[in-house]
Amino acid sequence: MIDLKNVATSKQVSFSYTGLAGTPRRERTRGIFVALRFDSSASWEFYRRLEAHVLRLPTPPNDKLETKHGKGLPGEEWADKIRELIKSCKIAVGDVTGCHGDVLFELGVAYGSGEPIIPAVEQEGNMRDCPFWLRRHNVASYQEDDGILSIATSIYDFFFGEQRIRPATVPQPLPQVFGYIGKTAWNGHFLDQAERALQHEALRLEGLDSIEDSNCQQALRLAARARILILSLDGTESDCFMHFACGMVAGHEHAGYGSKRLSRRVFLLTESPGVPVPESIVWFPKTIVAVKTDELMRDFREEISNYKQWIGG
Fold first, then answer.
1. Angle between helices 78-88 and 101-112 (to 10 degrees)
2. How far apart are CA 42 and CA 98, in angstroms?
3. Of the four, 17, 72, 112, 125, which is 20 to 30 A from 106 by CA?
4. Helix (H) or strand (E) holding 117
């Protein structure tokens, strides 16, 4: 493992290399996506400091590391561009201080694409506010330089060293999997209707009524496997997972194989109009559909019909 404290801080370490017959090897850029709280000056300062450390990493010949973020992408094309940008990178870092919905969504896109993620918080005290399922990753604090060095070291080791952080092992989505995460008094009736509609077609609805420490890995697997996923926002801590799960589906937007694929959908229910929905989710209307509870069955039956046509085709 490299000791970054011994790396020169005045300039980037550089190398020269020539391939066969003296031909220079083409430069290779390895992207690091950083999900930020765009309205936070501390988050932007974190990005600048991390970028400076990354630029000083002693990369192998003709390799270049580059940090990237989603600010400033074209509005009407934002969904496609952010997905393309995140998937073009190989690892993602996210400022999860305060569990900002857009940050969790973007980390979910990376995780759903099979990339390792590194959550980070401004201060060590903020780690207590991270959801238990996120604390299963090594959460770093970026207030002190040692925290930034720890993140930079993990990035270096992932690309060039010991790979202490490994790519996420995410199951492939399956066309026949319909699922839900989160069942409460206000949405239970509609989930029961969805289950009966599937049973009528000899299908079943997989689900978890709540997210707990004992089943969070199961919840992540279901979010990865389901072609149709019903999620609910109610303004509680569980919304953090829902934002992340939305990103997982958006990061891998089709189920099936070859040319025979079906689009994945998240049906997002909200307990009341006042429950906030992250802006990132709003930009994915083809994948993430915000529906009222009384509209769910109409759209759900349409997706059952789409699956039956896919099977018959």
1. 60
2. 12
3. 125
4. strand 117-121
Structure-token match 């000083």, residue found: 56
Compute, in degrees rounded to 10, the torsion defined by CA atoms 189, 215, 105, 269: 0
The pLDDT value given to residue 56: 93
Give residue 157's identity as a one-letter amino acid code. D
Asked if residue 6 has pLDDT above 80, the reply is no
Asked if 245 contacts 252 with a C-beta cutoff of 8 angstroms, the reply is: no
Q: For residue 268, list its beta bridge partners.
A: 231, 290
Assigned token pair, 55: 């630029």
pLDDT digits (tens, 9 = 90+) for 35-77: 999 999 999 999 999 999 999 999 988 899 999 999 887 666 7
Which amino acid, one-letter code, is at 279? E
Domains in the chain: boundaries: 26-160, 174-312
Q: Which residues are bridge partners to 118 per DSSP?
A: 93
Write out the DSSP string of 25-58. PPPEEEEEEEE--TT-HHHHHHHHHHHHHHHTS-
DSSP assignment of 156-169:
HHHHHS--SS----
Show the tokens assigned to 88.
């073009």
| Cα torsion angle, 227, 101, 78, 53, sign | negative
> Who contacts 196 (Cβ-Cβ below 8 Å, separation ≥6)?
none
pLDDT at res. 73: 75
Q: Let me know how long the chain is.
A: 313
For domain 26-160, which CATH number applies: 3.40.50.450, 1.10.540.10, 2.10.109.10, 3.40.50.720?
3.40.50.450
CA gap 211, 71 in Å, rounded: 31
What are the phi and psi torsion angles at 120 (to 5°)? -140, 150
Contact 231, 180 (CB under 8 A): yes
Number of H helices, E strands in the chain: 9, 12
pLDDT band at 313 (very low <50, low <70, confident <90, very high): low
Q: How far apart are CA 48 and CA 43, in angstroms?
A: 9
Class of the CATH domain delimited by 174-312: alpha beta
